[in-house]
Design a protein that fits this description.
The chain is of the alpha/beta class and 265 residues long. Helix content is 43%, strand content 14%. Bound molecules: 3-methyl-2-oxobutanoic acid (KIV) and sodium ion (NA). Its main location: cytoplasm.
């Protein structure tokens, strides 16, 4: 198969075809996910929780992400590779340029940043310098201490409107993809409809342009608890490859996430 690019993903959205994504942190899983047809692999800073056993993503460093990005890039042939920029690695535009450069050199094709309109100048600057950017709105885990816990976001009308405004601002600044985490299904649908870039949901309902799960959650092996929006595909299938295939199928045909994995307003 031909290597997936941001143009492939944009065409999926335009065709109304769901985009499939998983986190990956090493070459072996990256190769397996890639061979099963997973379109996007994210080296998430979730690795702080699922690989390092920390209770948040805050301790993760750019060199941690770079290390795992090199491994994933070595294992994947076709999948589009996105790397998370860790907590405080993009506090200023100059920091963002330097750290994004490290992740792109490690094998990423796009970097992901958490936050709203305050990031616009950084996003524009990264894109001008050849670094495609994925935004991340809703429950942004790097801000867990501001939120006071891992909570569903955008439930009241004001917050929902603010999130839509931020999403449109990120797109206007040059973001080429958006991850939307832990918001009501209706808000996931509205953001996906309003934006022309692909919107990948996690706990954002079935109507986003694609879905992503943390691989450890999808396989039911997370050191931490299992979030409501995730599903254990390994226990359902009893086989690693079948688990991945079933997840990809259920994303493509809109069977996942069901109402039991989604949030109402
Ligand atoms: O770090 C991560 O794995 C993520 C996904 C949950 C979107 O940001
Ligand atoms: Na992340």
């Amino acid at each position: 198969m031909k290597k997936i690019t941001i143009s492939t993903l944009l065409a999926r959205k335009q065709a109304g075809e769901k985009i499939t994504a998983l986190t990956a942190y090493d070459a072996s899983f990256a190769k397996l996910f890639d061979e099963q047809g997973t379109e996007v692999l994210l080296i998430g800073d979730s690795l702080g929780m699922v690989l390092q056993g920390q209770d948040s993503t805050l301790p993760v460093t750019t060199s941690d992400i770079a290390y795992h990005t090199r491994a994933v890039a070595a294992g994947a042939k076709t999948s589009f590779i996105v790397a998370d920029m860790p907590f405080m690695s993009y506090a200023s535009a100059d920091q963002a340029y330097e750290n994004a450069g490290t992740l792109m050199a490690a094998g990423a094709s796009m970097v992901k940043l958490e936050g709203g309109s305050w990031l616009c100048d950084t996003i524009t600057g990264l894109k001008q310098r050849g670094v495609p950017v994925c935004g991340h709105l809703g429950l942004t885990p790097q801000s867990v201490n501001v939120f006071g816990g891992f909570k569903v976001q955008g439930r009241d009308a004001d917050k929902a409107q603010q999130l839509i405004t931020d999403a449109l601002a990120l797109e206007a600044a040059g973001a080429q993809m958006l991850v939307l985490e832990c918001v009501p299904t209706s808000l996931g649908r509205e953001v996906s409809e309003k934006l022309s870039i692909p919107v990948i949901g996690i706990g954002a309902g079935v109507d986003t342009d694609g879905q992503i799960l943390v691989m450890h959650d999808m396989l039911g092996v997370s050191a931490n608890y299992m979030p409501k929006f995730s599903k254990n595909y390994l226990s359902e299938t009893g086989d690693l490859r079948k688990a991945v295939t079933l997840y990809l199928e259920q994303v493509k045909n809109g069977e996942f996430p069901g109402p039991e994995h989604s949030f109402e307003q």
